[in-house]
Amino acid sequence: MAKPAHKDLIASPAEVEQDYRDMLFLRHFEEKCNAAYRAGKVGGYLHVYIGMEPLAVGWLGCIKKGYDRVIAPYRIHGHALTLGSDPVKVMAEIMGRAAGLSHGKGGSMHLYDVEKGFYGGWGIVGGHTPIAAGLAFADKYRNEDRITLCYLGDGAANAGVFFETLNMVGLWDLPIIFLIENNLFAMGTRIEYHAADTELWKRGVPFGIHSERVDGMDVFQVKRDAQRIIDRVRRQQKPALVEVMTYRFAGHGAADNDQSLYRTPKEVEEARRRDPIALIEGFIREHNLMTQEKMEAIDAEIVERVEDIYHQADALPFPEPGEVYEHVYTDMLPEEGH
Ligand SMILES: Cc1ncc(C[n+]2csc(CCOP(=O)(O)OP(=O)(O)O)c2C)c(N)n1
């Protein structure tokens, strides 16, 4: 404990350890998901967040968990786990088991846990942004000081529906943060080929929305920016748009077998120099916060925990064929005359 944890961040050694554990847990959890996919244990899609962990751990660490609302696209294991969803239920959903968060019918892209404030889990790119505005509208209408945190990708930032949503959100001053996860790619299309203006933070400016670009790799910097912006939106009851600069180390999805079509191994290697896990490990070493043995012990403990989660989930049954139409459509029919 030779030096303070960070010269202008009030982070105790215990907080640093917690952030390290949380990010490492997401990393190992998703490496296990990838292995499970390769072993034929995951049906459908699988999109991992490897390299983007601070966006979940940092931002969700600064909201009021279970009170504020969170909604995201389909790269969402990290969001559900960080919000406190039962990891066995998350893994079970990814593996299509009946005890999964969506009864085994949603899979990796459709995790929901409303008790934890998590509203999914959406596969139509950009399509969840007006739903997010609806959540924020409801809170404003009821005079509740909740905020809505809406994650979306750089590709989604081009969707027409997103611009319409920004207009309404700006007009109505809704308490929402659009967090654009700029990982530089939309599937195999690099940002220069899909966005007329690659400074995505500017998307909010024409609508009078407070907009800025921030870092997404150094979890401590991420937390500082997140807390400042979240406090601002809650206090002012006005929207914000944040472009968070990050990088996707894995392929777009588990079936993305030829990344050479859109990037070189050298580029990935260079981006790895700012791997969020390597950055926090470097920080821990620099400030003598843990011995190498302790870091290795934490790593081993987390690997074991993830193995245990996987085996628990794998022991769970699939849904019965007769349940196929259950939990698909609402049974809340409108009353007659409405
Ligand atoms: C409306 C719509 N168009 C196209 C697709 C196919 N699609 C799935 S993911 C994706 C890329 C989205 O990229 P981005 O928003 O940057 O998110 P990332 O995968 O980088 O997290 C596309 C085009 C879709 N799901 N929905």
UniProtKB/TrEMBL annotation:
Name assigned to this protein: Pyruvate dehydrogenase (Acetyl-transferring) E1 component subunit alpha
An example Gene Ontology molecular-function term: pyruvate dehydrogenase (acetyl-transferring) activity
An example Gene Ontology biological process: pyruvate decarboxylation to acetyl-CoA
Residues of the Dehydrogenase E1 component domain: 22-321
Origin: domain of life: Bacteria
Cofactor(s), names only, from the UniProt record: thiamine diphosphate
Organism expressing this protein natively: Fimbriimonas ginsengisoli
InterPro entries named among the record's database cross-references: DH_E1, PDH_E1_Alpha_Subunit, THDP-binding
Keywords: Oxidoreductase, Pyruvate, Thiamine pyrophosphate
